[in-house]
Design goal:
two-stranded antiparallel sheet, 37% helix, 101 residues, 6% strand, mainly alpha, extended
């Protein structure tokens, strides 16, 4: 197990947030209960993001993977509304013209 360091803990928090894991919750009396790092690691592992070695590396890989994928794998939209589709292009394509607006 990797010993926690300030940067490592920050990366774990950012990775958990990026994967939709809440930072904590407020109880019925309004007291905030932060999500323990052990719980973050367990949830990330269950989501196939084992954060044991180095959460910063996993966070970098996740962000890099999003930019390498030209289109999102799924886009949910409604029939009567205009949809916006994110598109990632290499920097060399900066003069590319897009139609459809």
């Amino acid at each position: 197990m990797t010993l926690p360091t300030p940067g490592n803990q920050d990366a774990l928090t950012q990775l958990a947030d990026r994967c939709g894991i809440a930072a904590g919750y407020h109880d019925i009396w309004g007291n905030f209960h932060p999500t323990p790092d052990q719980t973050r690691r367990a949830l990330l592992t269950a989501m196939h993001f084992p954060a044991e070695p180095d959460p910063a590396t996993l966070l970098d890989e996740l962000e890099d993977g999003e930019w390498r994928r030209m289109l999102p794998p799924v886009l949910v939209s409604q029939c009567d509304t205009q949809s916006v589709m994110p598109l990632s292009l290499p920097k060399s394509e900066e003069n590319l013209r897009l139609w459809g607006h």
